[in-house]
Amino acid sequence: MTHFRYDLLATDGAARLGRLHTAHGVVDTPAFMPVGTAGTVKAMLPESVAATGAQMVLGNTYHLMLRPNAERVARLGGLHAFMNWPGPILTDSGGFQVMSLSKLRKMDADGVTFQSHIDGSSHRLTPEISMDIQRLLDADVTMAFDECTPFPATPEQAAISMRLSMRWAARSKQAFVARPGYGLFGIVQGGVYPELRAESAAALKDIGFDGYAVGGLAVGEGQEMMLATLDTTTPQLPADRPRYLMGVGRPSDIIGAVLRGIDMFDCVMPTRSGRTAQAFTRRGTVNLRNARHQDDPRPLEEDCGCPACRGYSRAYLHHLIRSEEILGPMLLTWHNIQAYQDLMRGLRAAIAEGRVQAFAAEAARLEALGDVEAM
To answer: Which CATH architecture has domain 5-267?
Structure first.
């Protein structure tokens, strides 16, 4: 019987090397979770996602409750069987949609009533309903239901939003059905205000969670403010539990957050960028739509092991994109997920060897050089 636990294996400054044990397997941290919002990582087979080294993926309560619905997924064996992903899954509680769908929802102290973006039908989300949906989906990591505080927000607005989320966090904990190998994460809110973040972290620790997420960042505040918020927030989170920065982000964001003690990440950026001709490399992003690639026989990145780099030239990738062939987004998505997993492997090795600051400095140097060979 697998018990949900986090093992802290090594530290290098604030950066942490760890291992998360779940009902469906182990996740080595720092970890990046590809986003499979509606039960699929777009343009990727599950086997292809696993081949990049990804150990855990993310699904979304809001989208899956609307289509195909949680009860149907449960009848078909849970999300792991449904999407053919045998490894760990984390599900977002739907809280981000509470913010992003503001024109389609009505919020009260108990929860949120909203209109489906698919057909306009009315639905209800409360902490209790969110916990039940995530249980039906069979998520290894369930996220507490919260309101993601928008940016900008005044201190008063951020305080009201955060305190509502803390009440919902307590209700989420009460409604969560504990089972071996399954965990519940609380979400720290409070905008960019250190005193509100401190109040939120203290409230969540009093409730007691299996892991702690930092939410409400990467919503427009910029990298400098995001990292400054982590500087004051992360040290207040329990050292023996995993720490998850939600919805982040660019490689430089991830490196900066790892240096500040974050263990887990997710973001649509690598997959969305792959569908819009953007490729992440160690020297920054490359836009394969640009005409300068049309006669370039070189691979996208010399030392990358993904299929896009092993078998195809920049010229061919450019051709696929300009011709709107579906293989283009497929190959670039694979490359981007591979690039992110390679980054996480590099960070884990650097922490284990006590050289994470040097790793971060070299990554920043390479990105600053840009994609010079192709200019």
So the answer is: Alpha-Beta Barrel (3.20)
